[in-house]
Every structure is written in structure tokens, then in C-alpha cells.
Amino acid sequence: MMRRHAYPRTAGVVAVLAFCFTGLPAAAQEPIAFKAGISDPVNTVLAWYMARDAGFYSAQGLNVEIFNMNGGSRGAAELQAGRLDVMHVGLSSVIRVNRAGGDIRTVGSLSNVIRFTFFAAPGVKSAADLKGGVIGVSTFGSESDSTVTLAMQRLGLTRNDVVVKESGGGMQRLAAVKAGEIKTTPINEPIASLARSQGVSVLVDLVPEQIPWVFSSIVVRRGDIAGRRDVLMRFLKGTIEGNYLALTDEKRAKDVLARELKITDPKILDVAYADF
Q1: Element (H, E) at 238
Q2: What pairing do the DSSP bridges indicate for beta strands 117-120 and 184-187?
Q3: What is the pTM of this model?
Q4: Which residue in 197, 1, 219, 196 sits closest to 95, CA to CA?
Q5: Residue 76: phi, psi to the nearest 5?
Q6: φ and ψ at 206, to 5 degrees?
Q7: Residue-wise pLDDT tens for the chain (276 aa)?
Q8: Could you tell me if 275 and 115 are in contact, meaning their C-beta atoms sit under 8 angstroms apart?
Q9: Contact 122/207 with Cβ under 8 angstroms?
């Protein structure tokens, strides 16, 4: 749990950035279009949602649009291709793109631990039930793909014992596992709470282990760090302010989280915010 006395320190960081990177001239100019990609609508995106809702990005002279790329590695590839300005994605996707000749970099993190729970199809209770079956992930090379290796280790299996298949976003994977089309899939909040509320059984839960991992990071093209440094700094400043507001104004944060992630169950909303 984050210590309460850490919040004023965060506020100080925001104040220093505000002093060093003044946004007054930027706000008076025509807003700069800025495309931000996410792998799925999840609670780790809340800092971005809050920054947009509170006008922190517009105060920095940015018109930020958030696009769901339905998969981390797919979004990272779109970033590398120049169709996004920034991507909310984990380290695995960054490595995949760079190994293929790309040049993208993580410049900030929104989550530093693994947040996946592996939910099972009806009848799948053990490693023996899973062996030879299909595991659904968002896209190959994404965090959902990489964490399959860890889940298999917990069950005494390897990736060679299963078939990994791209199965889309969290809601699509949840529907597929409930229908038995796949045998298990990793899901994070708030869809994990929805799965539990619907009685979907848990096969492996990596969340309590708090495994260190650059799970959700802010990724940009390396050339933009020098070539568009001012624009990236504005985006980062707005994100820091959005994150601070999400931590200090629970009611407003929950309102934004419920609207953006279409959460109607108060219990699921409470869990999703607490997990954030």
C-alpha cells in the first residue's frame, strides 16, 4: 500500500515540472493532436483518463485521443509505424518490436507488478486438464503472452505442453473461456472481478505474488525523445497530474473509471480502484 505521506512528494514533483516546463504559451496555441494507444480498457489507464477528464492535457496544449489497440504488441507495432504518438504497454511488447528492428523506448511506468489472473474454462481444474489445450492471449509478444510461461511453471508445465492462441481483448477472452473455446486466459482488472462475479474459476493467480515487472508503461519512439521532447514532456506532465488526482480524489476517480471502463457494479468498481 502506498504511504499517505508520499502524495505531497508527488505534488512536489508536479510543481517542479510545472515550474521547469511552463505551459502558458502552449495553451494559447492551437492544440497539438496526440494519439495515445492502449492495449485494452483497464484500470492502469486511469492516469490518462483522469488527465484528459480534468483538462490537464489541454492545459499543456495537447488534444489527446485514446485508442484501444486490442493488444499490446499490436499497439507497439502501430507506434513504431508512426500511427500513434505513445502506447500504454508492457516491456514484453517493447522487446518484441525492438528485436524485429524497431526502436521504441519506455519513458515511464504505470504499473510495476504483474496483474494477471488465469481463469479456466468449465471442467479445467488442474494441469492435467490444461495439457494439450489452448491458452488465449491478446496478441503474441504481449504481457498476456509472456506471463503464460510463469503460469505454466506454477502448474509444472511448459509452453510446449499447451497451444497459445491470439484471442483478442479481455472481454473477448472471458467470453471464449466461459464458452470452452479456450481452456484458460490471463485477465486483469476490472474484467477479473467480473469473471469472479460470474463464477469463472481461477486456475493460477499471479496477482498476490506481486512479481516485479514493467507491466504497463509509457512507450514512445526513440527518435521522438529528442525530436519531439517538448511535446512528450507536456504529455508526461499531464499524466503525472492525472495520476496524482486519481490517487487523491477517490470519488472523481471512480466516476471516471466507471464511465471509461463501463463498470456498473459498485463492488467491481471498488476492487478495480483499490487495485489501481
Answers
A1: helix 229-248
A2: antiparallel
A3: 0.79
A4: 219
A5: -65, -35
A6: -90, -10
A7: 333 344 343 344 443 344 344 444 444 579 999 999 998 899 999 999 999 999 999 999 999 999 999 887 788 889 999 999 999 999 988 998 999 999 999 999 999 999 999 999 999 999 999 999 999 998 888 889 999 999 999 999 999 999 999 998 889 999 999 999 999 999 999 899 999 999 999 999 999 999 999 999 999 999 999 999 999 999 999 999 999 999 999 999 999 999 999 999 999 999 999 989
A8: yes
A9: no
Beta strands of the chain (E only): which ranges? Answer: 32-38, 62-68, 86-89, 104-113, 117-120, 134-137, 163-166, 184-187, 201-205, 212-221
* Nearest partner of 81 among 62, 97, 65, judged by Cα: 97
Residue type, 166: E
* Contact of 64 with 186, CB cutoff 8 Å: no
Q: How many CA atoms lie within 13 A of 186 on its CB side?
A: 25
Cell matching residue 72: 499490446
Residues forming beta bridges with residue 109, ordered by sequence position: 217
Instruction: Give the Cα separation of 78 and 153 in Å (integer).
Output: 32
Does residue 81 sit in helix, strand or coil? coil
What is the side-by-side strand order in the sheet with 62-68? 62-68, 32-38, 86-89, 212-221, 104-113
Reduced to 3 states (helix: H, G, I; strand: E, B; else coil), residue 89 is: strand
The answer to whether 238 and 60 have CB atoms below 8 angstroms apart is yes
**Overall residue count recorded for the chain in this entry:** 276
* 48 touches 36 (CB < 8 A): yes
Contacts (Cβ under 8 Å, ≥6 apart) of 52: 64, 66, 242
Residue 202's CB: how many other CB atoms inside 10 A?
Answer: 15
CA atoms within 13 A on the CB side of 75: 33
Are 213 and 113 within 8 A, CB to CB?
yes
